[in-house]
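Page 37, continued from 36.
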């Protein structure tokens, strides 16, 4: 008889695991507390505007393709993928750097900023490509059970790269501070400061400059819709508005979920919800990690977000825009070292309607503004307003236009919403950072050490934060369940 597997949550990792487990012949049910699937990658539709609530950068297209290929499908069966050209723009205080869609264009731009910089750039990206092949095709596909998983002939010969930081590596090769920030940006997706991230993680730079930035037509939610359709075609039962209140353990074995006060008997339970929250669904004796453990961990940032409908087309903008016109290090310190609301925040703005007209009404623009902040900060309407004023004024100045009278509506999302909507620990947006001491076997485990038949997946486990790692996390846990 097929084993009954109950999954908590419907983010990328849970949907990924559900597909693999259903394909292996299990009877899989998903229980999601919110009214739609997708977790942090849900969608907001309002007055003809379409917003991705969370992720907006489609990087590492090979990983998405591999996921669908595992089911005899292709991304093309579910969404149209376009490579963005240019990939993005970075606004500094006195100039704009444009990142093109292939290395030749990027090298030209680097030369414009720092003569002679294209040569070290090509060498840096070649090394990053080697790291990508090792990390993405080998290391991240291991379940984090033992330190030996990291020991391969390739990693041993690169051991120095685990003890040097990406920050020092970049600074060794590039002097211009704008190029330094440009090359330090990709590892921010791993949730930690570049000065606290091993230089081996330069594989993110290859993902950026080597593989490019893509856009699924209609937005990132199209991936979720594709995965939901795939899961349902494999027989997964998806329940929304289904809040899990308890994981029932009997004689040390996970036996059932309590969902909206009803018992759902299960042979195996897998949680794709935030790990800390998942463990609070267990009686104390069955939790593996104490509050002190979580407190000590470096969490990836939270964010203050604004979803804005503009009633005109905006000028001088791109699909992805980074505003690095204030001090990068100071803002990073205010996130990681001395957590507080940043004095002069860097921010990111996404205008998908620049390249994809389906995402806004005619002659309008869909805008998503994001300020990374430390998790657990005080979150009030007044602070949200204060920070909106700061960034919208800077946005107007840098892009040389006025937009404040063209806002039809504006919605915000911050720490309190991350906690309420996703049961996120301290309101983190991107899970637990991927620092050296929080990598691979040093991350929270996929399989419970205390409860039989209980498993975990998602951005707090292996390999870490981001959409591609979440897809991989789902596969890793499904493989582990099958193996056990
Ligand atoms: C603002 C923002 C921007 C981002 N940008 C990018 C980007 O550009 N590119 C990128 O690759 N990544 C990005 N990320 C990261 C990426 O979105 C995440 O790493 C990924 O979506 C995490 O997926 P997950 O499956 O681990 O968890 P989640 O998506 O958080 O899914 C967990 C699910 O569990 C549900 N749940 C929680 N508790 C319960 C309960 N008791 N009962 C039932 N269900 C429950 C939640 O509602 C949620 O649906 C971004 C994230 C955010 C927030």
């Amino acid at each position: 008889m097929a084993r009954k597997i109950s999954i908590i949550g419907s983010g990328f990792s849970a949907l990924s695991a559900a597909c693999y487990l259903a394909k292996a012949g299990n009877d899989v049910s998903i229980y999601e507390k919110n009214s739609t699937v997708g977790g942090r990658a849900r969608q907001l539709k309002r007055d003809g505007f379409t917003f991705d609530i969370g992720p907006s950068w489609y990087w590492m297209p090979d990983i998405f393709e591999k996921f669908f290929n595992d089911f005899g499908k292709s991304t093309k069966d579910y969404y149209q993928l376009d490579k963005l050209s240019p990939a993005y723009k970075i606004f500094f205080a006195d100039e704009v750097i444009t990142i093109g869609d292939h290395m030749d264009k990027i090298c030209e731009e680097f030369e414009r900023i720092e003569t002679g910089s294209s040569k070290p750039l090509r060498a840096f990206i070649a090394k990053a490509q080697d790291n990508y092949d090792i990390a993405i095709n080998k290391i991240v596909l291991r379940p984090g059970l033992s330190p030996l998983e990291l020991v391969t002939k390739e990693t041993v010969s690169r051991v120095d790269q685990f003890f040097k930081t990406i920050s020092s590596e970049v600074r060794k090769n590039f002097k211009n501070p704008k190029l330094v920030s440009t090359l330090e940006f990709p590892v921010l997706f791993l949730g930690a400061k570049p000065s606290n991230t091993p230089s081996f993680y330069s594989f993110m730079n290859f993902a950026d400059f080597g593989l490019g930035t893509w856009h699924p037509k209609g937005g990132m939610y199209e991936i979720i819709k594709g995965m939901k359709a795939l899961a349902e075609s494999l027989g997964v039962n998806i329940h929304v508005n289904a809040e899990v209140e308890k994981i029932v353990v009997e004689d040390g074995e996970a036996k059932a979920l309590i969902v909206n006060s009803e018992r759902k008997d299960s042979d195996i339970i897998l949680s794709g919800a935030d790990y800390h929250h998942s463990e609070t669904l267990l009686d104390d004796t069955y939790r593996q990690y104490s509050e002190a453990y979580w407190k000590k961990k470096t969490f990836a940032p939270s964010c203050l977000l604004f979803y804005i409908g503009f009633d005109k087309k905006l000028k001088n903008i791109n699909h992805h825009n980074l505003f690095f016109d204030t001090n990068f290090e100071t803002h990073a310190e205010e996130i990681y070292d001395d957590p507080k609301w940043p004095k002069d925040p860097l921010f990111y703005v996404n205008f998908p309607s620049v390249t994809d007209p389906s995402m806004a009404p005619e002659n309008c623009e869909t805008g998503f503004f994001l300020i990374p902040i430390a998790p657990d900060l005080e979150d009030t309407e007044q602070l949200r307003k204060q920070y909106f004023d700061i960034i919208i004024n800077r946005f107007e100045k840098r892009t040389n236009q006025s937009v404040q009278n063209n806002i039809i509506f504006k919605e915000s999302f911050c720490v309190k919403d991350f906690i309420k909507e996703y049961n996120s620990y301290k309101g983190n947006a991107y899970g637990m950072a991927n620092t050296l001491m929080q990598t691979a076997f040093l991350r929270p485990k996929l399989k419970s050490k205390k409860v039989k038949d209980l498993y975990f997946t998602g951005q707090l486990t292996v390999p870490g934060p981001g959409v591609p790692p979440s897809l991989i996390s789902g596969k890793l846990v499904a493989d582990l369940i099958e193996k056990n």
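Residues 106-206 form a domain with the Guanine Nucleotide Dissociation Inhibitor; domain 1 fold (CATH 1.10.405). Flag for discussion at group meeting. Residues 118-137 form the longest helix (20 residues).
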